[in-house]
Amino acid sequence: MLLAMDDIHFYEPSTGHGLPHDPFKAIVAPRPIGWISTLSASGIPNLAPYSFFNAICDTPPIIAFSSSGPKDSLTNAEATGEFVWNMVTRALAEAMNASSAPVPPETDEFTLAGLQTAPSRIVEPPRVAASPASLECRLLQIVELHDLDGQPAAYQLAIGQVVGVHIDRAYLRDGLFDTGAAHPIMRAGYRDEYVEATPETMFRMMRPGA
């Protein structure tokens, strides 16, 4: 069914959306949360969630998160060349939210959020011990984002190659990671909206053959 023109709200981002709040993040949703742990050059642990995060390549495995301005995660990753991604679950939601607080660089967000750390095996930054899966990464590059006019955007993109994978064996079923059983949460919509994946919301659909 085709919609009439009156049924479409169209806008150009450069001239404004004309709505109470920018709908961009609500449209591109749900999005995995980049819960990034790093170490500062002086060895202070840092943990922070990022709304703009995803896997961008599987061979080799590469992930990326973007930061608005030189926040601690980006600064630390650039200084040390390492970071770790930690899966956020429903059970860890409040701790994840606590770790997003705007605190000074010398603050240890693991302690702030009441989280136990676990050692990584290849990189130096610690992992979130209670997370069902974590990815140890080495930084490949930081990309300065620009708009169509060549003007700097507010965000920088940190790209890292996964060099180590941690999986809680409790979430392995016949050798497969059971995503629904982990109950990961994702960003959805505006500042306070999230989505939870559960076994009930998972479904299967095979890709067509050639």
Describe the structure.
The protein has five helices and 14 strands. It is mainly beta. It has a single domain (28-196), classed as Electron Transport, Fmn-binding Protein, Chain A (Pnp Oxidase, Chain A, Roll). A hairpin with an 8-residue loop joins strand 7 and strand 8 (127-128).
Write a short abstract of this structure.
The protein is mostly beta strands and 210 residues long. It contains five helices and 14 strands. The chain has a seven-stranded antiparallel β-sheet, covered by helices on one side. The chain has a three-stranded antiparallel β-sheet with strand order 1-13-14, with no helix packed on it.
Descriptors for this entry?
210 residues; mainly beta; 3-stranded antiparallel beta sheet; 7-stranded antiparallel beta sheet; Pnp Oxidase, Chain A
Taking the sheet with the most strands, its summary is: 7 strands, antiparallel
CATH class: Mainly Beta
Mean pLDDT: 95
Query: Number of DSSP helices?
Result: 5
Shape: globular
Question: Helicity level, as a percent range?
Answer: 10-25%
- The fraction of residues in strands falls at 35-45%
Q: Termini, distance in Å?
A: 29 Å
